[in-house]
Amino acid sequence: MARGENSAPIISLKKVSKVFANGTVALKEMSLDIKRGEFVSLLGPSGCGKSTALRIIAGLSTASSGSVTWPEEARRGKPAEDGGHEISFVFQEPTLMPWATVFGNVWLPLRLKGVSKRAARDDVIAALEMVGLEDFADSYPRELSGGMKMRVSIARALVTKPRLLLMDEPFAALDEITRFKLNNDLLHLWEKFGWTVIFVTHSVFESVYLSNRIVVMAARPGRVVEDMAVDAPYPREEEFRTSPVYNDYCRKASNALHDAMEASAEA
Ligand SMILES: Nc1ncnc2c1ncn2[C@@H]1O[C@H](COP(=O)(O)OP(=O)(O)OP(=O)(O)O)[C@@H](O)[C@H]1O
Question: What is the mean pLDDT of each run of 10 residues along the chain (267 residues)?
């Protein structure tokens, strides 16, 4: 079956609202179905609720109203153990433990599940190989560049073999060359392993390059204003960045973002 087609959504948000204690309406009636294998970007101006939506999906925050369900799991009759839903989260900052080696940092999620260092070894090395850092297992974070630290953070997210990868502006703090390189590496991994990815970004260019679907959001209150497919084949390599089809999608996404910002300013 082609990715994302003819299957129950992996996660379904129905009219999800989030009102913080100070009265801020971070999300208003957000509905979103994500299917297995999709690479979905949440694109929108600052404050439109992208991170809030991701945190609710991850179970790090709860909705004030509306529902968050996992229809595919329910259909398989196999809810995730301990409500875990096989999710991993990558934040904008690598958030590595400075006193631990690269190996120790990547081992952490398994260690928290009670997996010993010896038992975790193969999985940790496999995750480091995925991000090209297998030779740096004994290095400390201070010895690594910004891009390498982010790779460690990604390896730490991958070591538990998640089905859903949530990424909150993971490359925003990196220089453009490193960002492009990590974009390519992430796409290669996604194509190989078939995860589902929800990727938060401010960048039109990054969202078009990576995703097969872009959900554009507006602020005050945070809401979905456009849901557009990026119907360009993978693998996408550097030539895609200079192709007419890429430019067309960037223009479309840029117009949608512009409209979203106007809608946010008017609100
Ligand atoms: N804990 C909180 N208490 C009160 N308001 C909050 C809290 N967290 C977020 N907000 C507000 O909710 C709105 C949505 O925030 P959120 O961080 O989800 O937006 P975002 O689209 O991810 O923004 P950015 O792109 O700047 O990271 C903003 O107005 C923000 O100030």
Answer: 64 96 94 95 93 93 94 70 70 93 96 94 93 94 94 92 91 87 90 92 94 94 94 92 95 94 77
CATH fold, domain 1-23+39-86+164-267, is Rossmann fold (3.40.50)
Domain ranges of the chain: 1-23+39-86+164-267, 98-162
**Strand 11-19 vs strand 25-34: parallel, antiparallel, or unpaired?**
antiparallel
ipTM score of the complex? 0.96
Q: Would you say the CB of residue 20 lies under 6 angstroms from ligand 1?
A: yes
The H or E element spanning position 40 is strand 39-43
Confidence (pTM):
0.91
Question: CA-CA distances (angstroms) from residue 47 to 51, 203, 264?
Answer: 9, 15, 9
For a substitution probing ligand 1, which of 46, 199, 217 has the most ligand atoms within 8 Å of its CB? 46
Q: Is 4 in the pocket of ligand 1 (CB under 6 A)?
A: no
